[in-house]
Amino acid sequence: MRTKKTYQLTKIEPFKAQLLAWSQQFDTVLWLDSNNYSQQYSNYDAVLAVEEFTSIKTDYLDAFNQLKEYQTLTKDWIFGYLTYDLKNDVEVLKSNNTSVLDFPELYFFQPQKLFLIKGNTLEVQYLKMVDNEIESDFNTIFNFEIENKLDLENYGEKVKIKLTLTKDNYLERVKKVLNHIQRGDIYEANFCQEFFAEDVEINPYTVYNKLNNISNPPFASYFKHLNTYVMCASPERYLKKESDKLISQPIKGTAKRSANKQEDELLKDTLENDAKERSENVMIVDLVRNDLSKTAQKGSVNVEELCKIYSFDQVHQMISTVVSKVKPEIHPVDIIKTTFPMGSMTGAPKISAMQIIEDLEVSKRGLYSGAIGYFTPENDFDFNVVIRSILYNKTKKYVSYSVGGAITVKSDPTKEYEECLLKAKAMRQALET
């Protein structure tokens, strides 16, 4: 079905930059980059999929069944995203909040051209219909002059960021979440707020590069489909399937970085020993264990890492790793359906938390706190969590990014607000500078 060719590269980073710049000519692009972050569960250092041959685009109604049918029939690489609002296909829930972005709720495509980078090796996989272009495309990319071929400047406008919630309004709503916790409705909820800019034009390619250079996260992605764009600097994996093994790596717990080495180590140690942050993380680990158990072989759900601190350019994060062995008869799309949305972005118990979130949040989440990733022809998959991300609708001239945090019984609303601003810093910087 695909023609494969491999190349050995001597200078990886310049080639990656050329590859992403070259891809901007296509209507549909998905770029995934680990930014050379050292991690145990990694397939590729970077992946580029361009130019759709077939695709599926749906709202939430029967979305997972439609995706299941598409993935089964295609039997090939497919790339795309799942929005948070697919929760309405999983449970009897609604999304009544407003959204200007207007992204389809599910979108996947089968790329004509695929590039997979691992170490110094580039593997190119083209559908047979375009495989006569492999050599010429490689030569074009290899000699691509980024500065001369692309308008790398923003459009000269200052992006003025607004908030959907005032600080007082945010604090008031967090107090309402705390009331639900004190009443015993939930243990934890991930409460989010949107930052946005209207009537602006940005260069998504430039903004993505700025954001990625600021954060260097392990699950970065750049997505373009017609007039919709995602510039994603996610540090979090949602779910990965490797043969019969599932890996989920929820993040709960954030601390800022410091340029002073001693202070930075102190911030890291403080996070690791913070009782509130650990309890947040453990609650979500329990939720993930429960989600994975729905498709797991008996006794195979295991917590490989609990509350381990990982350091990124912008923040320290507390991450746990939960694994299981999946029953052989389970379809890969059904695995996702039984775990979606990811517990780190909802709360516990999951359904009650999602109902309360919907009631107290102002903006529809859409692709924020959804997932971007791919399925392989062998029925494996890998998806990130769409956080630390800028979403853009070019036609509507609307830019949006959202941030949130886990609210537990020990939460201080003012500190939660400050944590939101910390998480929003990189996106604001990428847009405003």
Task: Draw up the topology in text.
Elements: E1 2-8, H1 12-23, E2 28-33, E3 46-58, H2 63-74, E4 78-82, H3 87-90, E5 106-118, E6 121-127, H4 134-142, H5 146-149, E7 162-163, H6 167-183, E8 188-198, H7 204-215, E9 219-225, E10 228-234, E11 237-242, E12 245-249, E13 251-256, H8 261-272, H9 275-293, E14 302-311, E15 315-325, H10 332-339, E16 347-348, H11 350-360, E17 371-375, E18 381-384, E19 389-393, E20 398-407, H12 413-432
Antiparallel strand pairs: 1-6, 2-3, 2-9, 3-5, 4-5, 4-17, 5-6, 7-8, 8-16, 8-20, 9-10, 10-19, 11-12, 11-18, 12-15, 13-15, 14-15, 17-18, 19-20
Protein described:
The chain is α+β, with helices and mostly antiparallel strands and 433 residues long. 32% of the residues lie in helices and 33% in strands. Helix 2 (63-74) runs antiparallel to helix 10 and helix 7 (204-215) packs across helix 12. The radius of gyration is 21 Å and the shape is globular. The model is unreliable at 148-154 (pLDDT under 50).
